[in-house]
Predict the 3D structure of the following.
Amino acid sequence: MFSTAFLDIPPLQGASGTVTLPGSKSISNRVLLLSALCQGTTVVHDLLASDDTRVMLAALRQLGCGVDAQGTTVTITGLGGQLKHHDAIEFFMGNAGTAMRPLTAALAVLGGDFTLKGVPRMHERPIGDLVDALRLLGCKIDYLGNDGFPPLHIGQPTLKVDAPIQVRGDVSSQFLTALLMALPLAAQKQDIVIDVVGELISKPYIDITLNLLARYGIAVKRDGWQRFTIPQGCSYQSPGTIHVEADASSASYFIALGAIAEGDGIRIQGVGAASIQGDIRFMDAAAQMGAIISSGNNWLDIQRGAWPLKGITLDCNHIPDAAMTLAVMALYADGPSTLRNIASWRVKETDRIVAMATECRKLGATVEEGPDWITVHPLPNGQPIHASAQGQWKAASIHTYDDHRVAMCFSLAAFNADQLPVRIEDPKCVAKTFPDYFEALFSVAHANTQDIPVICIDGPTASGKGTLASRVAQALGYHYLDSGALYRVTAYAALKAGLSLEASDEGLIADLARTLPVRFEGDTVWLGREDVSEAIRTEQAGMNASKVSVLPGVRTALVALQHSFQRLPGLLADGRDMGTVIFPDAPLKVFLTASAAKRAERRHKQLISKGISTTLDSLRADLEARDARDSSRSVAPLKAAQDAYQLDNSSLSVEASIDQVLAWWQAKQPF
């Protein structure tokens, strides 16, 4: 998952491949709570691992449920409808509406001494209609802040069921879902009737709830969408095991990707047209816009069809979350698109109508908005494009409002016709439902190689380039290439294969280097399945690397391997010839220097900390000798590229050096 302050996505050209989606948030949190209310154990397979589900799991543990998590399989030992603990408990619900609303209802019916709170945005999301309905039942709920909004305190109820429970349906379907899941706990002696006041929005989400309640033994009678009856004497029964479908809302981004991007199409694994999730109907809207879609039980295939896409006018009440993706698809259409009946957008993680309109305008689009609708006018895209029509897209830094769907939607703007990058602020917000979204996107999207940015940091031995480069890569979310480690790994592998490091074995070492199975994972260097991090970081390993690096055949063999590290979203490469030989067209090159005395001092501290005895004088002499050898070698001598920025870090902290490189990089960005 990207944890950077922002993520710059280069201009993308096409996409093809297969994406396996994470589990549905809506199903995951419903299943967790229903399993907690049962007697016995329920094994939940393919659970979504996200911020929202972590919030729910933490709450269930606080309540005394047994929770055994093994990857995406979680075993829940339920409460049997009875609380095990009666102490005061405070629950932190983050910004998880799928946890806050149902848990509030269940705890209010069970009764106790509970406080539920969340992030500031959660305290702006209405819950008054749910509280009003629960109070009609005799539940004790008090507001701890503004009336109608969390945080809440829940006490002991005096349950009474002498009339239908009324709840508004036109603000959020989660209020009705919460009641449907909680009220079976109070239906031992009589039926409980829920009447919906006003139009029920997001009906497909209620279908999910009813479907899952049936799996847990609760057969709710539905009269249209206005009256729901929970039968007397019903009780939760564990299904034993249950599988969570892949998230249909998350599928929308890859359905859109297949519709927008040139290529061989996108296959989505984990969800199909028969899904119980209402957002699967996004595929119908995408097909109206021109996508070619086929489906099986657990997969979707999407191909680009009509181009530009077709502008549409659509009532989106049935796909409120996925409809956000249509707003970005509309940028690629042949005329304006209007999305109607989306008032629920205003009470989500942010006011999504305002957010989508604001960020589309940043990209250069004309947008109109109303209380429950938005119209997005397209920008020039695809073929045919007249030269006079180009230049209307703008490079934009997208503010994401701590809203996962805003971040994921606007990543698709990187396919714009003007080939401009897009910056996604706070990309880690996707952790709410799809922590690995950007990794999944980059696994199927492709860009022209020259558009994938490379930052090169070259410099002499012990200048600190490895530390600086890895930290800058981490700050930008880029891949990291330690070219020096490649030579060290090559020497290590050659010696392990019984080769010498002399010119006599140059051809054999080069053959070995061409298929070197090396990869970098943070500070760990892998050679196949072997962790060689420590083995290649000794002083002797460094000397061995210098020996193989002067062999022309080996250097040639490793060039292609180094080029293969230039992958989306970008690369940070450090070494001694990254900017001069390997990536001569890199947009930013830094030559890092420090005095031999300072480098010797740093190396001395490093070796002493490892228990290796040495002296400053010997280290300095060794570094000076190595500098002379590296700068005078006939193949790729150590020197700064002509367009490199010189950075002497003799008196700079690592943080100051990082800040300087990031400032140079930012100065080259269009944002």
User: Anything to note?
Assistant: The CA atoms of residues 34 and 216 lie 7 Å apart. The chain has four domains: 6-22+248-448, 25-243, 452-478+571-671, 481-568.
